[in-house]
Amino acid sequence: MQPLIWDRRPDGLRAPAMVCAFQGWNDAGDAASNAVSFLASALEARSFARIDSEEFYDFQANRPCIRFGERDGSDAGDPEVDDGRREIVWPTVEIFEAHAPRAPRDLVLVQGVEPSMRWRAFTTHLVDLAEALGVQMVVSLGALLGDVPHTRPVAMSGHASDAALLERLGIQPSSYEGPRGIVGVLHSACAQAGLPSASLWASVPHYVAAAANPKAALALLRRVEVLIGVSVDVSELEVAATDYERQVGLAVRSDPDIQAFVERLEQAADSEEQDTPDDLPSGDIIASEFQRFLRQRGRDGK
């Protein structure tokens, strides 16, 4: 079975760039995947291929889901559609084309769940696809949890095959050492293939890790616009980012311990310090208490 399943061949793409994001370990606050989803929606991207899930996923770790829908006749005889209303949706990676008006290049968008296994083969297939489509640059997006306050501009870091790219983007090169996700593996595979690439990461406050973070998604999207010369209307995402900051601020101010913790993070961010003071509860405790507060707030209907 071929790992790449084509629904159709994409129309003529102009000097395309490939932008990738994967749900899972690389995607704190859903920031990376939401940035690509917003980009796809804004540019009315159309799916043209997907990666066969059987090859790369552990279905006990990433289980398929049941979805309800209307039967239109096209799924007649499909064993995965049991009664015309329920179908099995498997974890996978979808590939989209997006034509960007008045921009120097079009986009190939890659989005889905981080694969469970055979990462080297997985990234090889994506690199081969990029080369077959004439992709001139691969941009992978990620988000990580960090000791950062929600009130300050989103801290960005990354890697690039060309140091001038990072300088143009105004972000610091990452000094991270440790376990890697599929985003880092894909970036390395592109570098080995001689394909120009950049890996952009946004930092998400660890004390509100369970909530989607549109502020970080917006920061990633802004860097993508600069990097590949594509502009989209982000007013909806800006409103969501403002509302996120307001809601988190209300929750923080309701608990003196959390408020003190965030204020110290703000001081550290303003002075470019990295160490969290020892006289405050640990980040894990603060995060646990903050999530408990948000759950209670939701039950109370506030």
Low-confidence stretches: 273-283
Beta-sheet strand percentage? Answer: 15-25%
The helix tally amounts to 8
Main sheet attributes: strand count, strand direction, barrel closure: 9 strands, mixed
The overall average pLDDT, rounded, is 85
What share of the residues lie within helices?
25-40%
Order of strands across the main sheet? 1-3-6-7-2-8-11-9-10
If you compute it from the alpha carbons, what radius of gyration comes out, rounded to the nearest whole angstrom?
21 Å
Protein model, in words:
By secondary structure, the chain is α/β, with parallel strands linked by helices. 36% of the residues lie in helices and 21% in strands. A nine-stranded mixed sheet has the order 1-3-6-7-2-8-11-9-10, with helices on both faces. The chain has a two-stranded antiparallel sheet with strand order 4-5. The protein is globular. It starts with a strand and ends with a helix. Mean pLDDT is 85; it is low at 273-283.
What topology emerges from the helices and strands here?
Blueprint: E1 4-6, E2 17-23, H1 31-42, E3 46-51, E4 65-68, E5 86-89, E6 93-98, E7 107-113, H2 119-132, E8 137-146, E9 156-160, H3 163-169, E10 172-173, H4 182-192, E11 197-205, H5 214-228, H6 235-253, H7 256-270, H8 283-299
Parallel strand pairs: 2-7, 2-8, 8-11, 9-10
Antiparallel strand pairs: 1-3, 3-6, 4-5, 6-7, 9-11
Helix pairs in contact: 1-5, 2-4, 5-6
